[in-house]
Amino acid sequence: IGERGASALARAVQLDCSLEELRLGRNKFGNSGASALGTALLDNTNLRLLNLRLNSLTDAAAKKLASGLRTNNTLTALDLVFNGIGDTGALALSSALEHNLTLRELQLGFNHVSNYAKLGLRKTWTERGKEMVRNPRDLAVYESELTLY
């Protein structure tokens, strides 16, 4: 759908349409489209699942999504697998999770997140009262994967 399509969908999501799941994997809309979706999360009250895997997203997109997550209270699952998100984006998401208690699943596998950032995410997640799918020992073994539940 590209950047223009993602921006159009973001406007619909922002207008609080009844859409509960949005699966946009492999649509090549990059940071611009994800930024528009991050802005849409600020106002949306229906979306429960957002799948943005394989869209060449970077830290800039993760930071914009994190901004939306800070105030969003309906999204329960966010899939950012196979993008180009690094520590800056992962730590921005971690910071957002301190304010968002509704997100139950965050998938960040196969990005460029260091063990340091993974530990920061795990700490934030644990403080929210959730449990990780993988224990700390597994994080070292599967360092390319990070899924929080």
Query: Which shape, going by the Cα principal axes?
Result: globular
Quickly count the helices.
Answer: 6
What does the radius of gyration come to? 14 Å
Overall mean pLDDT: 85
Short description:
The chain is α/β, with parallel strands linked by helices and 149 residues long. Helices cover 46% and strands 9% of the residues.
Please supply descriptive tags for the structure shown above:
9% strand, 6 helices, alpha/beta, globular, 5-stranded mixed sheet
Describe the structure.
This protein has 149 residues and is α/β, with parallel strands linked by helices. Helices cover 46% and strands 9% of the residues. The chain contains six helices and five strands, in the order αβαβαβαβααβ. It has a five-stranded mixed sheet, with no helix packed on it. It is globular and about 35 Å long. The chain starts with a helix and ends with a strand.
Itemize the secondary structure elements and their pairings.
Elements: H1 2-14, E1 21-23, H2 30-41, E2 49-51, H3 59-71, E3 77-79, H4 87-97, E4 105-107, H5 115-127, H6 136-141, E5 147-148
Parallel strand pairs: 1-2, 2-3, 3-4
Antiparallel strand pairs: 4-5
Helix pairs in contact: 1-2, 2-3, 3-4, 4-5
